[in-house]
Design goal:
The complex is a heterodimer. By secondary structure, chain A is of the alpha/beta class. Chain A is 46% helix and 13% strand. Chain A contains 13 helices and 13 strands. The longest helix of chain A is centred in the middle third of the chain and has 34 residues. Chain B contains 21 helices and no strands. In chain B, helix 15 packs antiparallel against helix 16. Classes of the chains: A alpha/beta, B mainly alpha.
């Protein structure tokens, strides 16, 4: 018996000293070191974003998910319904009689990343409209990472199924690069907007596969090291894709217009801004042909707690009115101050609960002033 | 091509594979280095390769002339055809804009064909001197045109205007070719060594071309010596991973420390009037570490890459911020330039052999020209003058001499050393303020802004990046070695290496900044 135990101890000690053990322990130690490094030196926001591919070729939220996002500043819970919409209820395609529907399309700012559902713009707007006596439903089809091109595809393929009476697109500085990167649309030789690629589903195959595994989900929701590396890699890949596709897209435009200066007609914004405007115009056109009003909500960018900037190029005279562009820049700036935080600073710069409330109050006020929803007011 | 770019990573990976394939063949390996170096440099603007090729041919021919080796007409024709052919080829993509510059190449060749035979009618000593003057005129002339023409033209116009004489400054808007100061000084140094008989001239043109254009140190040094680097091309090398740690540490210094400090420094220096006293002080300290990590990071990367290729490049930095005196600082900071200035300027001026006053004069001239080497701006001249002045003052006070002779216990000596290091660092920071300031108004704004109030807050982010550097340098001092890792236990070594790797992955600045010394 004693010699058997001794034999086992000997084999165990041998295993501990063996190269197999080293191969096992060293990578484990490296990962633990990395995790500790990130937590101590550069705490990273842990912000999983579960998106999958829709049949119509752009991303959509993963259905029936429940996960949390944690940053050094906050913790938020994200829940999606059976269609991947961030909501605490289901929305049938058929519109209830006598009800107005507002469909929102945007990126993570409009999804309400870094805040709980109850503090998100869509939820607050929905409650505010109902409290004010409007028979309205706000359906949030925003998806993290969306640019205007993806919003347009999602609107046509999914948004109109909800029979909206009002369509709202968010507009943010990241849209310009996102539109180039997705290559879903381009401007042809005659200056018209035409569909280019049929789909844009970056990394969806891999993330769909990985999301099946509990270990991956745990990593995505717990590891700051994983989040930091994933975010940096994504930024690098995004920048590379824009750099590759921007000259191609600009040259396609160039051939038709004959203008060599791609920073040209749409003044400071150049080709990316020109493409963005065409996409918004198209969204407005298709909305109106589907009997829905269309408007744009510009969301500014925060450089610091007190420096909130627009970052988007200027519209041509009359263009903003034609597209019904609303901008809460003045309200956000007025509320800015050393002790007032409208955007998160240690996460990914999304709107804080107070920022969301401010934008909601502003937009609600504009809606009331415009009187667009008056037919549905009790 | 920047070392800290994906383009360079792709280039170097491909280069290493080819280099390994050529490991048995000296000639093909040298040819590969030459072609690779020209691609590396031409990535910025291929037209500037014409300057390098011109300099290479001229220096080679002149150095041969110094040992009485005259080119045959056939060789002369071959060099002329090489220069003209490569110039045409490199100009082709820009024919319309800068094709006219080819006339300069033609005129230069014609002048060479006229002057060269006449030089050989002179006696040997006179010919050697004439050849040296010729090469100094050519190399410094090119440097002068590309680096200083605008500066002197503008300064002359400003000075004339101040006395009521309005002169239209003829400004060519000349673009500064990357690294011109480095390779020009490298070739000038080699020529002077050959003139002095200290080094044999190169005999293999391709090897010399590869030496001039050796890509690890082409654009920002270290400024190599012919006698040290050129002989290393005589044997084939097997590439290895030795040097990869040095490269990574250099990359860490550049993209984690220097590039992350850069935005804070820029924000304060661009508007010093809006900054508090503590922010001004923190910005100067941050710049001291930014420029150190930027430049020494580049040098480490250059040495690391060269080591991976089997070459040894001279040391350029040796813990400069632990210097106790200005002379110690200059023996630790940008060593290849300060030793160049010592050997080819200070010593020929008389060094310290001509009496006290002339020694001070020589120090001031050397440091003023050293300042001007960094760039065409009066702030650089002022920076050089400031360092010249503190060298003179320390010499007058006899501090170096006192350090050599002082008595006392170890503890007292250490305390004295610490006080001197701190004082030297403060003086160096004052110098960096002059160096970094855009103009004298900025300097004045800094001095106006220092009101004695202090808060720790602005220093917090500076220290965040600087403390790991100081910790590693403490290890270097403790072990008495610049590469202390082999000396320490494996587990500690692994943790240091992991820290650097994760620093590169997580803390690296997302905004790529060019190396500061590329502009010099």
């Amino acid at each position: 018996m004693r010699s058997e135990t001794a034999g086992m101890e000997y084999r165990l000690a041998g295993f501990v000293r063996s190269k197999w053990m080293i191969w096992l322990l060293v990578p484990l130690y490296v990962l633990l070191f990395g995790e500790a490094f990130v937590r101590l030196m550069a705490p990273a926001p842990v912000m999983p974003r579960y998106v999958t591919g829709a049949a119509y070729g752009v991303r959509v939220g993963m259905p029936n998910m429940k996960f949390s996002q944690t940053t050094p500043e906050t913790r938020a819970e994200i829940r999606t319904n059976s269609r991947g919409i961030r909501a605490d209820r289901e929305y049938p395609y058929e519109k209830p009689a006598g009800t107005c529907r507002v469909v929102l399309l945007g990126d993570s700012l409009l999804v309400g990343y870094e805040v709980d559902l109850e503090d998100s713009f869509a939820y607050l707007l929905d409650r505010k409209l109902q409290a004010a006596g409007y028979r309205c439903e706000v359906i949030n089809l925003a998806v993290s990472g969306f640019g205007t091109a993806e919003m347009l595809v999602a609107l046509q393929q999914e948004g109109f199924k909800y029979h909206p009476d009002l369509v709202l697109f968010s507009s943010h500085v990241t849209d310009l690069d996102d539109n180039i990167r997705s290559s879903l649309y381009r401007i042809d030789g005659t200056g018209r907007l035409v569909r280019d690629q049929r789909e844009f589903l970056p990394g969806i195959g891999v993330s769909d596969e990985l999301s099946k595994y509990a270990l991956y989900r745990w990593l995505a929701e717990s590891s700051q090291l994983y989040s930091a590396i994933r975010e940096r890699s994504a930024q690098t890949i995004k920048a590379a894709m824009v750099n590759i596709r921007r000259p191609q897209a600009a040259v396609q435009t160039d051939k038709g217009t004959g203008a060599r200066d791609v920073a040209g007609p749409a003044s400071a914004g150049g080709f990316p801004w020109m493409l963005n405007l065409k996409l918004l115009e198209e969204a407005q056109r298709v909305s109106e042909s589907n009997h829905a009003r269309f408007c744009v909500l510009e969301l500014p960018f925060s450089l610091s707690r007190t420096a909130i900037v627009r970052m988007l190029p200027e519209y041509e005279p009359g263009e903003a009115q034609r597209l019904h562009v609303f901008s809460p820049l003045a309200e956000l700036r007025a509320a800015a101050g050393p002790t007032s935080k409208q955007f998160f600073e240690k996460g990914h710069g999304h709107l804080t609960p107070s920022g969301n409330r401010l934008v909601t109050d502003y937009f609600f006020g504009e809606l009331v002033r415009a009187g667009w929803l008056d037919p549905w007011k009790n | 091509m920047l070392f800290n770019s994906f383009v360079f990573a792709g280039f170097f990976a491909g280069f290493l594979v080819l280099y390994w394939l050529c490991r048995q063949h000296r000639w093909s390996q040298t040819a590969l280095i030459l072609v690779g170096s020209y691609i590396f440099y031409g990535w910025w603007d291929e037209r500037f390769l014409i300057l390098i090729i011109t300099s290479t041919i001229t220096d080679f021919v002149v150095m041969l002339g110094m040992i009485d080796r005259r080119l045959t007409p056939r060789e002369g024709l071959a060099f002329s055809a090489y220069l003209l052919g490569s110039s045409v080829l490199l100009m082709l993509p820009h024919w319309r804009e800068t094709g006219w510059a080819l006339w300069f190449v033609v005129a230069y060749l014609a002048a060479g064909w006229i002057i060269y035979p006449r030089l050989f009618r002179l006696q040997e000593a006179a010919r050697k001197r004439a050849l040296l003057i010729y090469i100094l005129c050519v190399d410094l002339g090119v440097l002068g045109v590309f680096k200083y023409f605008n500066f002197f033209a503008d300064s002359f116009a400003t000075a004339a205007a101040s006395v009521g004489w309005n002169v239209d400054a003829v400004t060519l808007n000349v673009v500064l070719p990357v690294g011109i100061s480095f390779y020009t000084f490298q070739t000038i140094g080699f020529c002077i060594d050959v003139y002095r008989g200290k080094t044999r001239p190169p005999v293999d043109f391709m090897r010399f071309s590869a030496y001039v254009a050796f890509f690890p140190q082409l654009v920002a040094g270290p400024i190599e010596r012919g006698g040290h680097l050129l002989p290393q091309f005589a044997v084939p090398h097997t590439p290895s991973l030795q040097g990869s740690w040095l490269f990574m540490w250099g990359l860490y210094k550049k993209i984690v420390i220097a590039d992350n400090l850069a935005p804070f420094v820029e924000s304060v220096f661009s508007n010093p009037g809006a900054a508090s006293s503590a922010e001004l002080a923190a910005a100067v300290v941050a710049f001291a570490f930014q420029i150190y990590c930027d430049f020494s990071g580049y040098s480490d990367m250059a040495r690391g890459i060269a080591r991976m290729l089997g070459f040894d490049i001279i040391l350029n930095f040796n813990l400069p911020y632990i210097a106790r005196t200005p002379s110690e600082f200059w023996s630790r900071w940008h060593i290849s330039l300060s030793s160049w200035l010592r050997d080819y300027l200070y010593v020929p001026l008389g060094g310290n052999r001509l009496g006290t006053l002339l020694t001070y004069r020589n120090l001031m001239i050397t440091m003023l020209l050293g300042g001007l080497w960094h760039g065409a701006a009066w702030t650089f001249v002022l920076w050089g003058g400031f360092h010249g002045a503190i060298l003179v003052v320390y010499r007058m006070l006899g501090v170096d001499e006192w350090l050599r002779r002082r008595q006392g216990s170890e503890a007292v000596r250490r305390l004295q050393d610490a006080a001197l290091v701190l004082l030297m660092f403060v003086l160096v920071c004052v110098g960096w303020l002059l160096f970094r300031a855009r103009d004298m108004n900025t300097v004045a704004a800094f001095f106006r802004g220092f009101d004695g109030t202090f808060s720790f807050e602005p220093f917090r982010s500076v220290l965040f990046y600087v403390v790991p550097l100081l910790a590693f340098e403490a290890l270097q001092v403790w072990k008495g070695k610049l590469e202390p890792l082999p000396e320490i236990p494996g587990f500690v070594r692994m943790n240091i290496q992991l820290f650097v790797i994760f620093g590169l992955l997580i803390l690296a600045s997302t905004k790529t900044q060019e190396f500061i010394y590329f502009a010099f």
